[in-house]
Amino acid sequence: MEIWSDLTCPWCGLGNHRLDRAVDRFTHGGDIELVHRSYPLDPGLSSSPAVPTRQMLKQKYGMDDAQVEAATRRIEVLAEREGLRPYIVLDNKKADTQLAHEFLAHATAQGKHAQAWHLSFRAYFGQARSLFDVDALLELSDELGLDRDGTRQALTERRFRQQVKDEARRAGALGARGAPFLVIDGQYTLFGAQETDTLLGVFQQVWDATHPRPVQTPAGDAEGVCGPDGCALPSHPAARG
After folding, report:
1. Distance between alpha carbon 5 and the CA centroid of its chain, in Å?
2. 89-121 burial string, b = 16+ CB within 10 Å, else e?
3. Does 232 score more than 50 pLDDT?
4. Spatial separation of the C-alpha atoms in residues 106 and 101, rounded to whole Å
5. Can you give the residue ranges of every domain in the chain?
6. Angstrom distance (rounded) from CA 166 to CA 31
7. What is the pLDDT of residues 64-93, one digit of tens each?
8. Residue 241: pLDDT above 60?
9. Which option is the CATH number for 2-207: 2.60.120.10, 3.40.30.10, 1.20.140.10, 3.30.460.10?
């Protein structure tokens, strides 16, 4: 299962939280491999200085102060009701997240995939920390226990820039129009921050479609178990030796 997100997208932070809860609650959650993918939504923004979220939303969408307040506070309330406290949207800042996604790719290469994504979302929405320059990302690197010099080199050399661009391009090829964007089993797609119960229902539908249940034959001389690939031979006393 793959989910495409941007680190400063409030619906992405909430959507990832809901997805984690759904996987935890799903009966077969232990069989799910969740892979995070990068989808920077505002590559046209400057990386420095970061601009207030209020200002960016007004400029990008032509919203007035009341509209910005209503839209962002709604997400904050939803997130806090679901256990994300605090969840800072309006009083945060925005900038180009390309470098932050390159940091995530580097952390993934170092075996810290899920940890890096979770830490970055918490740092941004939980603490309103910057994710937009090398120094800020080195702080996250330290918290993950990564080699600081290795992280600095990966970021300054822009070692993972093309990988991030390729991941975003693939999302578009799969039909993504924004983020979060979820692909299950390579063929089932979901858009937006779906609620946990909705995700659980989809998980079950996909599981049932991809894992046919074995059919128990009636008891008798021909007793056996039939599945999608054939039937197991019945066990007879003579065969037990």
Report:
1. 6
2. bbebbbbbbbbbbbbbbbbbebebbeebbebbb
3. no
4. 9
5. 2-207, 215-240
6. 27
7. 999 999 999 999 999 999 999 999 999 999
8. no
9. 3.40.30.10
